[in-house]
Design goal:
This protein is mainly α. The protein contains three helices and no strands.
Amino acid sequence: MPRVPRWLKRAAALSLVGLAAGGGPALAQCAMCGLGAEQAADPDTASRTFSLAVLVLLVPVNLLVAALAWLTWKARDWDGAFQPPGPGGPDQSR
């Protein structure tokens, strides 16, 4: 099993401390979101709308990450070495 670098352990510990310290109720991240949440006539509808907006904003990010992962996988040679796609790159039959 490979050894985990010290910096990664420290980063994980710092992330856990940050999550534990910020465990209170979630606050709006921007002035527009906070104002929209405060002035909503129907809190249930506003909550559903904000949740849907978050999901809609996550779709492009996830698609970009998936595309980069796919491109990285396709550019990888079977022996594990990275070769950029193109002339002299990996076999195109995969």
